[in-house]
Task: structure prediction
Amino acid sequence: MIKKYFHPFFNRRTIILLITAIFLPVSLCVSISVGAASVPITETVRILCGYDSEPRYLYIIRDIRLPQSLAAILAGAGLSISGAAMQSVLRNPLCSPFTLGISSAAAFGAAVTLYLGGGEISLADNMLFISNHFFATARIGISLGAFFCAVITTIVVMLLGQVRGTRSESIILVGVALSSLFSAALMFLQYLADDSRLAAIVYWTFGDTARATWHSLILMTVCVLPVSLYFLYHSWNYNALVLGEESARSLGVPVRRLQMLTMLFASLLTAVLVSLLGIIGFVGLVVPHVSRLWIGSDHRFLLPFSLLFGGLLLLIADTSARLIFAPRVLPVAILTAFIGVPVFLSLLLGKRTQL
Result:
């Protein structure tokens, strides 16, 4: 009787979720312990628990590695759950902030803001400015510029999706075209920029968690947490959308409002993450697919697992990028592209990309 009562809570999907949730903080401790200068795991745990340690260990963990690792978790979680939600409302397994051109649009918006307001500063001053003056007007303008372009792109994609006869596959093609357009515009902007502005633009387009600060983590948390809660709250509605729009309406789901708000919030997350960390591709595309293979298509389990697994995957990738060419740090976006492309191609060839 007891086993029968608790059976819904102790199925395979719940166990996978619990294992992932336990493995994430363990991986965080390991991540901030390894690098060009190793920190004993015992000292890492002591510092995370609030105890004092050697000044060099405190500096390495609190000022360098902990913000970077937490940024990797937040970025991976935000991009992954956004990709899963986009795929649900558009009912297309190829949708993500990367494939729909939203990431490229946000990067272009950030680049335009940097080009127009870069000022007469050198490369070194620019790096120092970006790292240490988060609440300066330029930093806020970069985020606003990225968000504005991302939202405009989202509106264009959604409007084209409402055109009679437009199929979901066409939405992906529109996203690819917009991505190419913004990439070309970004290259044109780089061609016109002087040395200092060019360096700043290139710096922003690299997807790298090493530039994260405690101030940027606050903004990322403020965006990732409520948006993720919104997606999780509507997990049942996403399940209904899989059955089709007419079936979802008959079940009382506000389809149009849900689609628009989901795309808008996903754009907000993408814009903030791109403006703070640069473009990190394939995470929001590959993680939902892998999650469906492991845990199924029920969004009550798929969304939280995508959130946890996305953060874990990007954390592991970021740690690996830090160790491959140590003491030099490889931008994590390069590694995620090398990993994401073959994984996604294997999923496509295996014909296991259905929602």
